[in-house]
Amino acid sequence: MKSVKFLVALLFISVTSFAQQKPTELDKSPMDMSYWPSNYPITKLNGKVKDQPIARVIYGRPQKNNRVIFDGIVKYGEMWRLGANEATEIEFLKNVKINNKSITKGRYTLYCIPYADKWTIVVSKDNYSWGNYSYNPKNDVLRIDIKVEKNTETVEAFTAYFDENKTGANLVFMWDDVKTQLPILL
């Protein structure tokens, strides 16, 4: 009788320990990725890639959802993770220049201190940060102020993408009625 109880207990423990975990719910702010050049994933898929991409940005996409964004849920003058959930990451696969400062290829975290007329973009070497809770200015690689522009249309989901130009690309950020551009040179 004791051996039957032991086997039943062992079977119960085995079944419960191998039970599948439930997947997480769909995040309200899904993660997204943009490449420079912007068509890089499709070009690679089609076998037409000659080089690695220059950069990619990985970020959470919070939604406006009828909220006041700037100087509302994103406070002016306070550090912001530049998106949602984990802090926004940028990976340079080649050396670049931002504001005449050389940035060596590698992975960095982007933060932002927004104001009504400008955003201070912070490039940090402290990676894999959730939000800006562990932000440390000792890890700053660069700070640059960029101009705020007003959009004519409201952008519901925070958006980041590379807009190529003759000298490099602008990393464009848009949300609500605001647009900013971080110039990146090759």
Give the overall average pLDDT: 89
Q: Could you spell the SSE succession in H and E letters?
A: HEHEEEEEEEE
Low-confidence stretches: none
The helicity comes to: 10-25%
Helix count equals 2
Kindly report how far apart the N and C termini lie: 77 Å
Q: What strand order characterises the main sheet?
A: 1-2-3-6-7-8-9
* Count of the domains: 1
Count of extended strands: 9
Please compute the radius of gyration using only Cα atoms. Answer: 22 Å
Strand content: 35-45%
The secondary-structure class comes to mainly beta
Shape: globular
Query: Sheet bearing the most strands, described?
Result: 7 strands, antiparallel
Which oligomeric form is depicted?
A: single chain
Structure overview:
With 186 residues, the protein is mainly beta. It has one domain (24-185). The protein contains two helices and nine strands; from the N terminus they run αβαββββββββ. The chain has helices spanning 2-17, 40-45, and strands at 31-36, 55-60, 88-92, 96-98, 101-103, 106-114, 118-124, 140-164, 168-185. A seven-stranded antiparallel beta sheet has the order 1-2-3-6-7-8-9, with no helix packed on it. A hairpin with a 3-residue loop joins strand 8 (140-164) and strand 9. The longest helix is centred in the N-terminal third of the chain and has 16 residues, at 2-17. The protein is globular. The protein starts with a helix and ends with a strand. The mean pLDDT is 89.
Quick description:
The chain has helices spanning 2-17, 40-45, and strands at residues 31-36, 55-60, 88-92, 96-98, 101-103, 106-114, 118-124, 140-164, 168-185. By secondary structure, it is mainly beta. The strands form 2 sheets. Strands 1-2-3-6-7-8-9 form a 7-stranded antiparallel beta sheet, with no helix packed on it.
